[in-house]
Write a structure and sequence with these properties.
The chain is mainly β. Helix content is 12%, strand content 33%. Strands 15, 17, 18, 19, 21, 25 and 28 form a seven-stranded antiparallel beta sheet that branches. A five-stranded antiparallel beta sheet has the order 16-20-26-23-24, with no helix packed on it. Strands 8-9-14-12 form a four-stranded antiparallel beta sheet, with no helix packed on it.
């Protein structure tokens, strides 16, 4: 008796020849594992009534791993900067400078509200994320399109669908919604070019930094139990001021519309192994002027350090902003937001922070 083994099904991705090497290629999901999963141990030590046991973690759960490594991920065709107003009912976007010769519709287009009338995401604007890859599967095979499994995405909600990619020969685009966030201005991928980040690092390293303090102004004090790092303030460095000012203005217009009247000097921060800044807020209250918005930029390549996670606490417990692990990511948030940088365990983490002030809230 003879058995014929069927070959494994092959999925093909093809784009227009003019876009080859221009847009990012699809890649297997197993090549992009979430940081939280990679750092998770197989077992965690638990102590109960003096007895210690090693409890298995979710990393020993095959179904979770299978979901993480199954399928392909199709990246956004380029970096896109979104401006969100009115809780998502108004959304506009521009492409990054490297793709500014292309129309904004090259990456994202609008659907109409009537197409999703009654959807729970209303009144948010439905968008169409453009895919320039033609997808082909063998006869009898279709594709299920879903957001990457077991990977948190706070800012985009995609609508899943099944396409008969063995007979459908058009491009497949992905409908979804941008989810506005109360604390940050959204920009996909990196914000600050890596070359600029490296220039700021080298410039900051050329000065002698000082021990960071806790508190504001004359009330500042050294407290290694709360904060341990070295800092240097860029006084009157116009090109650095311009970077943080630009993004603060964009974020403020999109989310808060605070009255801003001044910009403090940007602070270059160096975290070496064992150094950190525990939970704190940046707010400073004076009779007439107060800090209103904070800007933080991760200047470091994540491969050059370990630890140093940027965390926030909005009242429901701390959480890690995974986006801040990427070099060049910038976040803008109200200065009364609790946040911290966890201890660096290896290498050196560099960051740039800046505060914007205005008349006290009435």
């Amino acid at each position: 008796m003879f058995f014929k083994k069927e070959p494994d099904p092959v999925i093909e991705f093809k784009c227009h020849p003019d876009l080859e090497g221009v847009i990012p290629e699809p890649y297997p999901a197993r090549h992009y594992m979430p940081d939280w999963y990679k750092k998770l141990a197989m077992f965690v030590r638990v102590e109960d009534d003096g007895a210690q046991t090693d409890d298995p973690t979710i990393k020993r759960c095959p179904p979770v791993l299978d979901a993480l490594v199954t399928g392909w991920i199709i990246p956004l065709v380029c970096q896109v900067e979104f401006t969100i107003k009115d809780k998502g009912s108004s959304v506009s976007w521009i492409l990054n400078k490297g793709d500014s010769n292309k129309p904004a519709t090259f990456a994202v287009q609008n659907h109409t509200q009537n197409q999703v009338k009654g959807h729970p995401m209303n009144p948010r604007v439905p968008l169409k994320f453009i895919n320039h890859w033609h997808i082909k599967t063998p006869p009898g095979w279709s594709c299920l399109f879903v957001p990457p499994l077991n990977r948190e995405e706070k800012n985009i909600e995609l609508i899943s669908g099944i396409v008969d990619t063995d007979i459908f020969h058009e491009y497949i685009n992905f409908p979804g919604f941008i989810i506005p966030n109360d604390i940050e201005y959204l920009k996909l991928e990196q914000n600050i070019p890596i070359s600029v980040c490296n220039s700021i690092i080298e410039y900051g390293k050329s000065f002698e930094s000082e021990q960071a303090t806790v508190g504001y102004g004359e009330q500042g004090r050294i407290d290694p139990n709360i904060r341990k790092s070295k800092v240097f303030f860029f006084e009157g460095i116009h090109w650095i001021n311009g970077i943080t000012n630009q993004y603060c203005a964009l974020a403020n217009t999109s989310a808060w519309n605070f009255e801003i009247s001044g910009q403090q000097s940007p602070q270059f921060t160096v975290y070496r192994p064992g150094e950190f800044y525990d939970f704190h807020s940046d707010e400073s209250n004076h009779a007439t002027v107060m800090r209103k918005l904070s800007v933080s930029i991760n200047l470091s390549d994540p491969n050059t350090y370990e630890g140093g996670q940027f965390e926030m606490d909005l009242g429901e417990g701390p959480f890690v902003l995974e986006e801040m692990n990427r070099q060049g990511t910038i976040i803008v948030f109200p200065s009364d937001t609790q946040h911290r940088v966890t201890p660096v365990t290896k290498g050196v983490r560099y960051s740039l922070v800046n505060w914007f002030e205005g008349p006290a809230f009435k």
